[in-house]
Amino acid sequence: MATIQECRAALDRLSDNLSGADGDVRGAAALDRSLSCHITDLDVTFAGSLDGGRIRVDALTPGPPRGKAEIRLAMSGDDLLALVDGQLKFAKAWASGRVRLEAGFRDLLRLKSLL
Q: What is the per-residue pLDDT across 60-73, written as a single tens digit (0 to 9) for each?
């Protein structure tokens, strides 16, 4: 089982990947939105924002998200690590229910290029 520190490091790597992306991926990641990532097996939530193509984590709280972020993710810590390491494809994980993504319709349309 992934640790909180490994999950935080994975979010940092994901942020680095997004900020260095080109084309459609960079455009999709350029949203300025509040963001939460609930790690279900650890029952913690990383809260922050997607800002200019980077993920900024402002808080780590126990349990599910306390507020409703504009973009909400939920998954196990192992799935987060596998996604960031390229061992798990987001679309497959989302379709199978291993990863939950909730956002407004317009944001989902912009984020589709990340899938």
A: 999 999 889 999 99
Q: What is the pLDDT of residue 4?
A: 98
- Cα–Cα distance measured from residue 32 to residue 35, given in angstroms and rounded to the nearest whole number: 9
Q: Collect the ranges in the chain with pLDDT lower than 50.
A: none
- What is the per-residue pLDDT for 75? 97
Concatenated DSSP letters for the chain? ---HHHHHHHHHHHHHHHHT--HHHHHHHT--EEEEEEETTTTEEEEEEEETTEEEEEEEEESS-SS--SEEEEE-HHHHHHHHTTSS-HHHHHHHTSSEEEE-HHHHHHHGGG-
CB-CB contact of 81 with 6 (8 Å): yes
Distances (CA, A) of 63 to 9, 38, 44, 47, 60: 19, 8, 5, 12, 10
pLDDT of residue 68: 93
